[in-house]
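Secreted protein with PEP-CTERM sorting signal: structure tokens wanted.
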Amino acid sequence: MTEGKNPNNNGGDLIEDLKVEVVGMAKDGARHPSTKPVLTGLAIGAAAGWILPVVSLPLGALAGAGFMLYKRVRP
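Answer:
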């Protein structure tokens, strides 16, 4: 999580931090420290979307992955 962070940023730009994290996950694949938690969040969100009648499977998966990605960038 801290590998791609800019030490001069001081937690300022959320979009830039998310971009760095997603690009790092795309380059490193399963070796990146954020990949497994984000995929776990995706699976939990998809399961919740499958169980809950109001939320669809893709929406639940997107929400779960987005939440875990946000928590990796902003703990």
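The mean pLDDT is 86. The helical segments are 14-28, 35-51, 57-73.

Cheers.
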